[in-house]
């Protein structure tokens, strides 16, 4: 046994000596040649997308977007559904996808008859001069079974520090509101930079398709019994 222990110790010592004696390999550049590689794309580019309405509860497909469980008085509340947005954008110069309403369009039902500044929302079916504000948020993944935390949306000119979670939401605007450019960042969900992940005009970032659009409505001024709706919630591709 003494001899065996001594022999094992010798092997271990030998192993350490061997591993420590492996020389480092130096790298020496003898010569090099540089070449240029270029792929020039000259096409106009396109913006394409598809939308699928899904239930937040179980992610199954649905036909339309709706709210349930509204008990007044109530403020901002998420819809029961979200929109899966599959998109491809290859137009480098100003291609994108925007989210708006068109509640003063001739085919809108109900047809909103109130001030333009408040047109982007759910229209009161009884008194069409009134509406409930809508807001949207786009994410790179599904946000549980209840969606993002409901909050007053981000307003660049008015909010300052604002409130917790407001950065996630942007007010829905109507196409009739010409104070904003057709392709204004506040209206744009996706462009060549990625998704509009926060409230600031430059806060776009990469997020592979598909992406997920959530909606909330403000029931603070709602009355009951009453129906509020729009048939002109529009997801629209554009190029400049």
What key attributes describe this structure?
240 residues; 7-stranded antiparallel sheet; 29% strand; single chain
Order of helices and strands: HEEEEEEEEEEEE
Q: How many strands, what sense, and barrel or not for the largest sheet?
A: 7 strands, antiparallel
**Low-confidence runs of at least 5 consecutive residues:** 1-21
Compute the CA-based radius of gyration. Answer: 29 Å
Helix content: under 10%
Indicate how many domains the architecture comprises. Answer: 1
**Beta-strand content estimate:** 25-35%
* Number of discrete helical segments: 1
N-to-C span: 87 Å
Number of strands: 12
**Estimated structural class:** mainly beta
Mean pLDDT: 86
Mass-distribution shape: elongated
Characterization of the model:
With 240 residues, this protein is mainly β. The chain has one domain (47-238). It is built from one helix and twelve strands. Strands 1, 2, 4, 5, 6, 10 and 11 form a seven-stranded antiparallel beta sheet that branches. It has a five-stranded antiparallel beta sheet with strand order 9-8-7-3-12, with no helix packed on it. The radius of gyration is 29 Å and the shape is elongated.
